[in-house]
């Protein structure tokens, strides 16, 4: 008698899960939206019913956003200042706007990737219930 395997018993591939998380989609099916607001993760996927309430993203997305934005904007700010010597107020206005816009763009996507990573690696309750 062959044992039946459910989709939750199979290995969860990391790359498709991270891609779906970046798109703010359910890491399991990729069809349902993961977020019900800007940063609020749904308790379960409306399409496949996957329980997403186990996630523990906490400060990870904010930390990664600051890390990425800081490493992109700081060298760019130095290069623009040395190469073009713009008025300081213009420089502050442009880089403040760019920093805020990039941060607002990256934050929910990085949160989706962290939740998808946790799902793919079966962390924090995303694993089998009977294990």
Automatic annotation (TrEMBL):
Pfam families per UniProt: DUF983
Transmembrane segments: 62-82, 88-107
Keywords: Membrane, Transmembrane, Transmembrane helix
Record's protein name: DUF983 domain-containing protein
């Amino acid at each position: 008698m062959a044992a039946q395997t459910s989709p939750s018993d199979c290995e969860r591939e990391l790359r498709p899960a991270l891609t779906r998380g970046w798109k703010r989609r359910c890491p399991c099916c990729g069809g349902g939206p993961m977020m019900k607001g800007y940063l609020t993760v749904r308790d379960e996927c409306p399409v496949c019913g996957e329980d997403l309430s186990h996630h523990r993203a906490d400060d990870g997305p904010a930390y990664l956003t600051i890390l990425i934005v800081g490493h992109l904007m700081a060298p760019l700010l130095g290069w623009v200042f040395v190469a073009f010597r713009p008025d300081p107020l213009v420089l502050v206005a442009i880089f403040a706007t760019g920093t805020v816009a990039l941060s607002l763009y990256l934050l929910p996507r990085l949160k989706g990737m962290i939740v998808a990573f946790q799902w793919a690696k079966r962390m924090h309750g995303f694993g089998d219930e009977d294990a």
